[in-house]
Design a protein that fits this description.
Elements: H1 2-50, E1 63-71, H2 75-78, E2 86-90, E3 96-104, H3 119-130, E4 143-148, E5 153-157, E6 172-177, E7 183-188, E8 192-203, H4 206-214, E9 226-239, E10 243-255, E11 262-267, E12 273-278
Antiparallel strand pairs: 1-8, 1-10, 2-3, 3-7, 4-5, 5-6, 6-7, 9-10, 10-11, 11-12
Length: 282
């Protein structure tokens, strides 16, 4: 009888002990699942600051954004005959390349001290050149001029109905200048009938996007850099026979001392890093 009583006491003790262990492990797992995210939220800004990176506060907000579509057309090739005083051609990828018969003075006062195109300079450029069909095909569709002093180019991009830029190179006008800041030619890509789809996607927050970027060595923002702008842009995510579909991307633009700004891109819905491109941004 004594042996059976001891056996029952031992079984009771082990049951109670196992219940306690189960409870403790459950609590520990719950804490572990919460703590990493809390740590990231609390330290991403501290991590950047510790490396001398300057930035504006990152937003935690999310929102739904419409995908956009464009039509696959040969619009540039079909309208190339309207261009005058230049030698223009189209390649198999629908890229128009043109060289002017004589270098063109844009009349906006560019010099070796120019770092960006002002609103006044762009207004003049638009009125005198972009809006005139003999100079460019649908030149009025391009905006947001960016000057790159490294290779003497002015880059303009098409936008969607809400003003978001298409940044993948498939909807841009790249004006080429010589050492005297005269326009010698240009390279143009074009997207027809830019429209919003009814399909929307929920984008990750700006803060989540910078956290993802900062986990990768390839996209680590350099020490002492300055993040000068963060915005939603679009890139071509799907190409079909008759249309292209564009998805939103977070674009982080930063600059290091004595160098041209660079862009880091991340799919704003999936959270995947797209590319990093050395571009002069405004």
């Amino acid at each position: 009888m004594d042996f059976k009583r001891i056996q029952l006491l031992l079984i009771f003790f082990f049951v109670i002990f196992n219940l306690y262990l189960t409870y403790s492990i459950t609590q520990r797992i719950s804490m572990v699942s919460i703590e990493p995210n809390t740590a990231i939220d609390a330290t991403i800004e501290e991590e950047l600051k510790s490396r001398g990176v300057t930035f504006q506060d990152f937003s935690d907000n999310t929102e739904d954004i419409h995908l956009i579509r464009t039509d696959q057309t040969n619009y540039l090739a079909e309208n190339i005959s309207q261009l005058t005083n230049q030698n223009a051609s189209i390649d198999s990828d629908r890229v128009l390349t043109s060289t002017f018969d004589q270098p063109v003075d844009l009349g906006i006062g560019l010099s070796d001290t120019t770092t960006e195109i002002t609103d006044e300079q762009f207004a003049y450029l638009k009125q005198e050149f972009l809006d005139k069909s003999e100079w460019f095909i649908q030149g009025e569709a391009y905006a947001h001029p960016v000057y790159n002093p490294t290779d003497n180019t002015i880059v303009l991009r098409m936008t969607d109905g809400d003003g978001h830029r298409i940044i993948d190179g498939n909807a841009e006008l790249r004006l080429q200048l010589n050492e005297m800041y005269l326009m010698t030619g240009y390279v143009q890509t074009y997207q027809s009938n830019i429209t919003q789809l009814e399909t929307t996607v929920e984008i990750i927050s700006e803060k989540t996007a910078i956290e993802i970027l900062d986990r990768r060595v390839e996209t680590l923002i350099p020490d002492d850099a300055r993040i000068i702008d963060t915005r939603i842009s679009f890139y071509q995510s799907t190409a079909l026979n008759d249309m292209n579909v564009y998805s939103p991307a977070w674009e982080f633009i930063y600059v290091e001392e004595n160098s041209s700004p660079k862009s880091l891109l991340i799919d704003a819905h999936r959270g995947t890093v797209l590319s990093w491109i050395a571009l002069r941004q405004n």
